[in-house]
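@channel sequence for tomorrow's demo:
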Amino acid sequence: MPEILQLSGGEASGYVEDLARLRIQVFREYPYLYDGDMAYEVAYVDTFLQAQQNFMVVVKDGDTVVGASTGLPLVEETDNIKAPFLEAGWDITKIFYFGESVLLPEYRGQGFGKQFLELREAFARAQGFSTLTFCAVVRPDDHPMRPDGYQPLDPLWRAQGFQPEDLHCLISWQEVGETEESAKTLQFWTKPIKGFVGIERIREIGVSFANHCTKPMRKSPFFRFPAILALCALLSQCHRHHPLPGPVAGYFPHPAFLQEGIAQKYYFHYQRPGQSEIWTNINYLTYQINNQQELVITNYDADFTPNRLRRVVFDQGSMIVLEDVQYNGADTTRSAMLQPTMRNWLADTATLKKEQKTGDLTVQSTEQQTQCKDTLIENRPGIIFYGQYEATRYTEGDTVTFSNTFAETYVEGLGLYHQHFQSDRFQGTLELIAQIPMPEFRKQQQHGLERVAYIDPEHTLGYRPDFELCTATEAIIDYYNADPDIHYRGGKYALWKAIRPQLEPDLLEDASGYLTFRFVINCKGEAGRFTLEPADLDFQPTPFPEQTVVHLGEITAGLTDWQPGRLKGEPADAYAYLTYKLKDGELVELLP
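structure tokens (generated this afternoon):
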């Protein structure tokens, strides 16, 4: 019985020649008719291995590799593959590209092709991508080398949710019967990932904008975004002039919120080279207009501790940094601005250059915007800034340089929506998930024992009655404060692998919404003190079918591969949570 392996990062390096061999053998068939060369193929496959988020599915029969399939972020593909999406205004930072799927003829018809699609989709979902794509060669129905009885794969692709797009690219190869390479046309197919936590979720969260002008604020901590443009007239009752100039104003929250202040909540996903595990943390960013009509942008850690403050103003389409302050415990460090333009909405380039001095340490950094591109994020105007960052640390007798590239997306009415950056040390993605009124954000900052994460041990679901803490209740920390972070070993991908086989669709009924189980993980990696927070897709409290709650509760309580954490070298207990997003009885996402 053939076995399926799932590989990512450097794990795929041992299969370079196998994949090259399969590509030559399988793509020689119609419709590609590829007359391949092993040396070229090995070099080609090696470029796939350089991608930080590569993924590979391998089918082995004994020691023989009989099939393989690959995928990687579209941003890491070649220019001719990315160009059609960029020209059409797509946000390529959220697209995962499916490479080849190659399987020897005698193994076809056994469901491996479907598994290739499903496993790559699960990986892309776990990494936070919102769209899948691949391209296929276009051949006329009367092509002279089309074999009798040839069955195209279009029905399989459509059955898996893919649709052809009016997007094409040219790729050259030498086909059977040719003496040299010639350009072939390929068409792209795409599929939105179900359950992607994106702009539609941001629109649905919380209370309406109009409350700021005409009604008391409801207690829900989040804002709903049902139809921002339709509310513009209502918002004009506030009679507030927007302090941001025309080219920029639309890409930040409304001035009513900027005056009072608004907090943005983000998931921060990051991964280290050569590791398949994806870590997730929570970050916050606040926007507020001060008395000088400057926009103050403050960054906070997951525990609401500020770590950075920037004061900026806008000159036409340019974002000018007046002050950049970093906080590290009791230390405060200010940067001297050498070139102050951080972003430019009206030009491709901008340069923010600064210098920071602390004792014998000097840090010089340059943040260079190299391109800006208009885009649509789920039919909503946006703009993507591409660029690179480089910092050099100088101490006596020592110089260290660090660099990364970035892609940063702002969306109409939301401000910073998505950010992806990558270096040789690690890569990370910042993803907006909610906006919080400033009074509620300040309230969350002032937490004591019964803070946001607190679980009353007298009111739990009863799973794991023998569960014991390693410390006291008042010493329980949040999962992101542990060292290492409290997490499920193998990350979200491993969670999907553990949960999916246990799901019984009949027990999910037709439930829709967010079913959040909060719990404590002790220093032994055991979970207990389970509580439940059910909400509908608009994040309003709602009951779920009892059998659905029991089914998912038992699955959650049965998860045992939790990585315990420590705090300052000592064993620690930590609050954690796992959210199941359901839509019409289907599990479409695990959060965070």
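heads up for whoever presents: The longest strand covers residues 361-376.
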